[in-house]
UniProtKB/TrEMBL annotation:
InterPro entries in the cross-refs: DUF2177_membr
Top-rank lineage group of the source organism: Bacteria
TM annotation in the entry: 47-66, 73-91, 111-132
Protein name: Uncharacterized membrane protein
Pfam families associated with the record: DUF2177
Keywords, ordered alphabetically: Membrane, Transmembrane, Transmembrane helix
Amino acid sequence: MTLIVLYLATFVLFLGLDFIGLSTLIKPVFEKSIGSLLLDQFRLLPAFLFYAFYVAVLLWFVSWPAITQDKSLIWVLGNAALIGALGYGTYEFTSLAVMKDWTAQMVATDLTWGICLTAVSATGGVWIARLLA
């Protein structure tokens, strides 16, 4: 039951925070350089698949070990930030390397957001799971 609470709490936090971040932080920066490439409405299935898989990986490497090995929330925050840097950094630096209109500002904004989003979501998920367990 703890694993289900952990997954759901992390997933809801990640989804909710990312909705806010995408609309207020990321979209304005990306519209400046690649606005003509952005959809008016995102595609639900690919977004859901990304969120579901990303949160599962986050639980596998960070959140579940924190629960089962009684790691601190600071440990969760730091390790989740590393997962965020890896995931978002892979996307951003690859895009910067191969896309002609990709900018350093886009990389810095999305990478910073991804690190913070991943760290806060994982830490919040572990905190909620511990609170409810």
